[in-house]
Design brief:
This protein is mostly helical. Helix content is about 70%, strand content about 5%. It has helices at about 10-20, 35-40, 45-55, 75-100, 100-115, 125-140, 145-165, 170-190, 190-214; strands spanning about 30, 60-65, 65-70. A 3-stranded antiparallel β-sheet has the order 1-3-2.
């Protein structure tokens, strides 16, 4: 939607959320309405409304007599995000194993293999290939409400990743790539139990690794 057709609150909300997710605004950073208003050239009222919406969505926290700040990432946040991911993604994986399209699965497998080559093997490329697999679980499940729920959670997943990406152990990325391959193998074999177990193993290993970085 063109900028002039969106509300000022929406413009401010999207701009601030993008900065928070990308880690340009880091956990604990202050969010001064006047400064943001000047930067975005938007009056304070829509800025205030955007901050309130971001607080409802878990990206901002307000402290009495101090103001608004980018929300911090706690062990509880990590646990809750991964618990919801496990519930959603395991259910989606079982459905994807029965509904998935073989040609798309094979294409993702080839892409993962090409990225694992010496030239393509970068943390960002590996993470993007993994994202494609996770997103496909919901795409193939064909449930719009489930997909929308996951999309909202994805913002928090991306924020976690961007916050910790520079600390990722290369060995963990290698193991993660193998786990994604196991998910694909289970989907290609149309084995819902194996797909669910592969997703569960991957998510729990990922959670354990991120917790170690706190």
């Amino acid at each position: 939607m063109p900028r002039n057709q969106r509300s000022k609150k929406t413009i401010a909300y999207e701009a601030l959320k993008k900065r928070i997710i990308s880690n340009s605004l880091k956990p604990g950073d202050p969010l001064n309405e006047r400064v943001i208003s000047e930067e975005l050239r938007i009056s304070k009222t829509p800025i205030r409304e955007a901050l309130q919406q971001l607080e409802q969505d878990g990206f901002v926290e307000s402290i009495l007599h101090k103001g608004s700040f980018v929300s911090r990432i706690s062990l509880q946040d990590i646990r809750e995000i991964f618990e919801v991911r496990e519930i959603l993604e395991c259910a989606a994986a079982k459905g994807a194993a029965l509904k998935g399209e073989l040609n798309k699965l094979k294409a993702m497998e080839r892409r993962l293999e090409s990225i694992e080559s010496v030239n393509g093997r970068t943390p960002l490329n590996l993470l993007k290939a993994g994202d494609q697999i996770h997103n496909y679980l919901f795409e193939s499940f064909r449930n719009n409400r489930l997909t929308e729920t996951y999309r909202r959670l994805q913002d928090h997943i991306d924020r976690l990743r961007m916050h910790f990406v520079t600390q990722f152990d290369p060995n963990r990325l290698e193991h993660s790539s193998k786990e994604h391959k196991e998910i694909l193998d289970a989907l290609i074999a149309r084995d819902p139990v194996a797909a669910e177990n592969a997703v569960k193993t991957h998510l729990r290993n990922s959670q354990d690794h991120i917790k170690q970085l706190i």
